[in-house]
Amino acid sequence: FWKEKYYLTYFLFPLSVVQAWSVLCAGHHNRVRACDAYGCNGLYKAVDLVCDDYSIINTPFSGSLAGPVSRKDPAGYQFDGVKLLSDVHCVKIFNIRPYRYSGPVTQGEALGYLLPLQEQFPGITSHLELQMCDGTDPSPFI
């Protein structure tokens, strides 16, 4: 019996599919960024979620912060953020200034705030960027 239960739980209905992440950007309900003058969502195997400059970013799932992350786009602009790990997920969250870079966090806890994209890219849809550590698509979780 336990083998059947294990098979059904972990292979047919993995935890990562069953448990949705909470809303990341206060007041925006995980709305995916559409195309604007600066491009479209997901150009870096990621999902861009609409968020106002300086808005509070909430932790999408409980886990541990695993330090700062950064990436550069083809034009040379650097985007900073933080890595969040759990037993199920590993995600990099860009365009944010976290309140801290290490230690445990709880789902829904204030993680930091969105960096002001409008200052560097006037007219862009301000957003945070979610990128799974293994390069897979984070869309199913939001």
Topology:
Elements: H1 2-12, H2 15-18, E1 47-50, E2 56-58, E3 63-72, E4 78-85, E5 90-94, E6 96-98, E7 102-105, E8 110-114, H3 117-120, E9 127-132
Antiparallel strand pairs: 1-9, 2-8, 3-4, 3-7, 4-5, 5-9, 6-8
Tell me briefly what this model is.
The protein is mainly beta and 142 residues long.
Describe this entry's structure for a reader.
With 142 residues, the protein is mostly beta strands. The chain has one domain: Glucose Permease (Domain IIA). The chain is built from three helices and nine strands, in the order H-H-E-E-E-E-E-E-E-E-H-E. Strands 1-9-5-4-3-7 form a six-stranded antiparallel beta sheet, with no helix packed on it. Strands 2-8-6 form a three-stranded antiparallel beta sheet, with no helix packed on it. A hairpin with a 4-residue loop joins strand 4 and strand 5. The longest helix is centred in the first third of the chain and has 11 residues. 28% of the residues are buried. Belongs to the LECT2/MIM-1 family. GO terms for molecular function: metal ion binding. InterPro entries: Dup_hybrid_motif, LECT2.
